[in-house]
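Subject: sequence -> structure tokens, single chain

Hey, anyone have a minute? Need the predicted structure for the following. Not urgent.
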Amino acid sequence: MCIMFFRVWFLVRSYYNYSLYKNAYSMRICKEKGVHSSTRFVMKCYFNNSPIQMITAYFLSITVIFAYIVRVFEIPLLKAENSSSFSALYYYFNAFYMTFITITTVGYGDITPHTIEGRVIMMIATLVGTLLISMIVLASTTYLNLNQKQELAFR
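Reply:
Had a minute. Here:
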């Protein structure tokens, strides 16, 4: 079931491949300037144009995906054992909550994965969360910086 998320990756790549920065005119300009018009370039362009929206979209989509994946790995355990301690991840909101807390590196520990696969997914989510938090700091700093005209008016 987790392999189905490759379809999501295909949709994201299709969105980037058929975007404003991948049309013939943009590719010609990139070629003249010596820039390879790749998916990474398109992501950088979107990030530079609207950093807050892109970070929000990345953060929410990664949280939703990791919550679903960890729930997929935990559901067989929930069905195998009828223990009340494992019932927290039966609900998707609890999996989303656990993933959100893990990605933001708060780590309350009130809901935890119990399978090895779930724990590995949460370790990966922690690494991705660290990257996302640093991107949030970068986007906030970029958003709050004054441009040249504002800097002149400030002085």
